[in-house]
Every structure is written in structure tokens, then in C-alpha cells.
Amino acid sequence: MSEPRRSLLRAALARTEGPALGTFVKLPSQETVELIAIAGFDFIVIDLEHSPMDLETASRHIGVARALGVSSVVRVPGLAGGWVQRILDAGAEGIMLPHVDTVEQAEAGVRAVRFEPWGLRGVGSTSRAGDWGLMPQTEYLRFGQEEVVFMPQIESGEGAANAAAIAAVRGVDALFIGTNDMSNSVGKPQGGPEMNELTQGVIRAAKAAGLPVGNPAGVTREAVQSAVDQGYTFLVQSNDTTLFATAAAAAVKAGRSVGFA
């Protein structure tokens, strides 16, 4: 009998020697996912909230990442439209749900992600998540209940105030702090004392509940060290478009600095 499949994402989030590292994917090119895997990231976050990607593209990204040993999280645009059901059947190991401000919203997310009796996810074991029908249905159901990671995104003053209660919801596995939207929500600059107090409150709430907590992070050693010092345990470093744009701009700047003798 084969060993039960284990979540690569949960394994990365549980690592104690350093933060788990991911990056957002906004481009539809499968080669982007391949390059990210070769670079050594632990996971990708396929961004369906802030990109024009469709479900079919996301499914192909998940398949490429899975084949290369990289875990896929999908940031869905919301709970409407059956996104969560179809993304999980496509084989994603995690769902990031933006703009979770209340316990009720977190509970609705859990219901979308989990099977009965925790939730309302439909059974579709003939999908990639069930190895196209070759996986025993009991194992398909077990993986969905025990291995899939649900991470609400806390990105408002209200969400920060309710972070402890959200973290305590059964079926919530991690918290992700959206500092850009939170800063805009409360009208305070990132890095200022008010924002630091809010984010530290969310970090404390996550840790008190025994949950990993992450944020969008920079790509330098200094940026990662700063995030770790603040208490973050997993980081989403930049995104594919910005990584490429930054490298391209640096290449052009270097090239333009040289003239003919």
C-alpha cells in the first residue's frame, strides 16, 4: 500500500531552520513557473485577484508546479463563482482568501475549502486532485481535509482587530497580512508606529493560535531578515513580473552606462 500523499506546503511552513519562501505568479506563461521552481522557491501563489489569468491557465500552472515539486497556493478573487472548488480540484495545495475581516468570512472560507462535515466542498475525485480518478476516494477526501492549507488574508483595521478570533476558527491553517491594503484601510503609512502595532497584533494572534504567519517581502537578505525579526514565518517575495522588470531595468541601466571610447 502506498504512503499517503503529504502536502509540500505544510512541510515548508513547518520548517524550523528558516522561513518558507514563495512568490506571486501573475503571468500566464508556464515557463515562469518552471523558472521559479528551478530557482528553488518552496511554493508559488497564483494570483487570480490581481492578474487577468483565467482558471484554465491557473490549472496548467498548478500541474507544472506539481510536476516540479513546488507547492501551489491560489489567491482567489473571492468565494463567489465556484473558484475554490475548481481550483482545489485542479490540485492546488492552498487557498489564500483576500479581505477576510470577520469570523463569519473566515468560516465561509472554511466551508468552501473543506468537505463535510466541516464544509461544503463537492467531491470530484476524477480531477487532478484525485489523480484523475486513480486515487482512492478515501485518500482524496483525507488530503482535502487534512493537507490543504486555508489562509485568510488580513488586510484591514477590522481584520487586524479580529485576528485572534479568525485564527481560532477551525480549518484556518495560516494567516497572511496584506500590508498594502491594510495601510490604505487605516490611512497610516507602512513602517509607521500605527501600522507596526497592527501587524504585530496579527502576528501575536497567529502565534498564540499556533499558526504560521506570512507577508509580502522583499528579495534582499536585509528584507528577509527584517521580516523574520518581526515574527513572520513564511514570505511571499515579490512576484514574477516585478522580478523580471527589476532585472531588465538593471540590465539596461548597466548597458546605458557604457559608451564608445
Automatic annotation (TrEMBL):
Transmembrane segments: none
Sequence ranges assigned to domain HpcH/HpaI aldolase/citrate lyase in this UniProt record: 22-244
Identification of the protein by name: 2,4-dihydroxyhept-2-ene-1,7-dioic acid aldolase
Family designation: Belongs to the HpcH/HpaI aldolase family.
MF (Gene Ontology): aldehyde-lyase activity; metal ion binding
Keywords: Lyase, Metal-binding
InterPro entries hit by this protein: Aldolase/citrate-lyase_domain, HpcH-HpaI_aldolase, Pyrv/PenolPyrv_kinase-like_dom, Pyrv_kinase-like_dom_sf
Entry GO terms, CC: cytoplasm
